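Listing S7. Sequence submitted for prediction.
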Amino acid sequence: MKTPCLGYIQLLISTARKREIMKKLNLASMLFIILAVAGCYMPIKGRVIDAETQQPIEGAVVMVEWTKQHGFIDHWTESYKVVEVVSDKEGRVKIKGCYSPFVAPPHVTVYKKGYVAWNDEAIFQGRARTDFKWGDYEFKLVQFKPEYSYDQHIFFIKMSIRSSLNFESKQIIEKAIDWEEELAIEEQRRLRNK
């Protein structure tokens, strides 16, 4: 025969176990949500402006690419998603996000004829960029100076947009740099003939 006290103790133990199980389930659910959202990049709004005049730049191409890493020993990178947009008369752009926990942070490149290309990882002619954060951002483009090399600039752009990955999805920016590629070829010819 059960004593009332023993039944009450069993009820308390049962309730405590249920609470412990619920805590673990809640923790597991929160951890799953954090991991699922960790690789997700929400849409962003940005503005492309002239670095010197602070005026908006219309017609600048903003290309964003997400990649996935594969393998451990035989490591390789795959283009997962590419978004290309063109800035409006106020220099504004809206970039769709990427909702996958398996992608690397996005690579961003901005290009407009007459300006030095902007990249989220590097600055033309050698320095690493450290000021970029995914979110609302002002892309400040510096005017291309006569002493700059078109050949070096095209190389910088091609490296920035990872032109060997998913070339078919980068048509807007590739078309935008066509004119400069011609100048780079001409520059190479002049240097060879000296």
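Caption to Listing S7: primary sequence and predicted structure tokens for the chain studied. Residues 42-192 form a domain with the Immunoglobulin-like fold (CATH 2.60.40.1120). The mean pLDDT is 83.
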